[in-house]
Amino acid sequence: MTNLLIIGPPGAGKGTQAVRIAERLSIPAISTGDIFRANIKEQTPLGQQVSAILDRGELVPDSLTNDLVADRLQQEDAKNGYLLDGYPRTAGQVEFLDGVNAERGEKLHAVVRLVADKNEVVARLLKRAAEQGRSDDNEETIRNRMDVYDRETAPLVEIFASRELIVEVDGIGEVDEVTQRILEALSGRGIQ
Ligand code: B4P
């Protein structure tokens, strides 16, 4: 059983690394951002509700996000653990996840904190904007996503640090190099 989170500012490489780390550990990488984008693409009722929110770079309300994660964690592939990417993002989501874990009779094992400076992450996101045209990768929305991260999500690092769960990893460098750093840091905590 391995329950992990990956946390960091937009563009730090969470989504990129989550898939690789999860594959290595044989657990699912669960990205709330990907789930929202899939719903927007398929024009589901949830997608219609959240589309404008993502375009502004605001957070989807906890009332929608929490239940979605709880449902996802009940699926068969998550019975041996999970790597949550982009969740929790608010103190309310942390509290909710604590409740879900308590119900499962489980706990978190580590929180990977990916560190990358602002200039680097903005450059990455603008590059992705040019390549993939994601609707929230324009300069104004990126700036707002950074502000929202600083205000709502960065403080969560303190919560997890007080539980001695933070594994800090430098997110600057080649993708493979960063993956290696994360795997080594997790292995140092007996997670492999
Ligand atoms: P996310 O999908 O989580 O978007 P993100 O924070 O920008 O991270 P992402 O995973 O896309 O980028 P990454 O750092 O991997 O969220 C999008 C929106 O969904 C939020 O703004 C919000 O509205 C909503 N949402 C999601 N979860 C929510 C929640 N829990 N509560 C409320 N709302 C929620 O990578 C960025 C780029 O860098 C990529 O192009 C990648 O190729 C590149 N890159 C990665 N590693 C690199 C490296 N080492 N070197 C160079 N480039 C690299």
UniProtKB/TrEMBL annotation:
Predominant subcellular localization, coarse grouping: cytoplasm
Subcellular location: Cytoplasm
EC number(s) given by UniProt: 2.7.4.3
Pfam families: ADK
GO biological process: AMP salvage
Origin superkingdom: Bacteria
Binding site residues for ATP: 11-16, 128, 173
InterPro entries reported for this sequence: Adenylat/UMP-CMP_kin, Adenylat_kinase_CS, P-loop_NTPase
Region (NMP): 31-60
Binding partners and assembly: Monomer.
Note on domains (UniProt): Consists of three domains, a large central CORE domain and two small peripheral domains, NMPbind and LID, which undergo movements during catalysis. The LID domain closes over the site of phosphoryl transfer upon ATP binding. Assembling and dissambling the active center during each catalytic cycle provides an effective means to prevent ATP hydrolysis.
Main function: Catalyzes the reversible transfer of the terminal phosphate group between ATP and AMP. Plays an important role in cellular energy homeostasis and in adenine nucleotide metabolism.
Protein name, entry field: Adenylate kinase
Organism of derivation: Candidatus Agrococcus pullicola
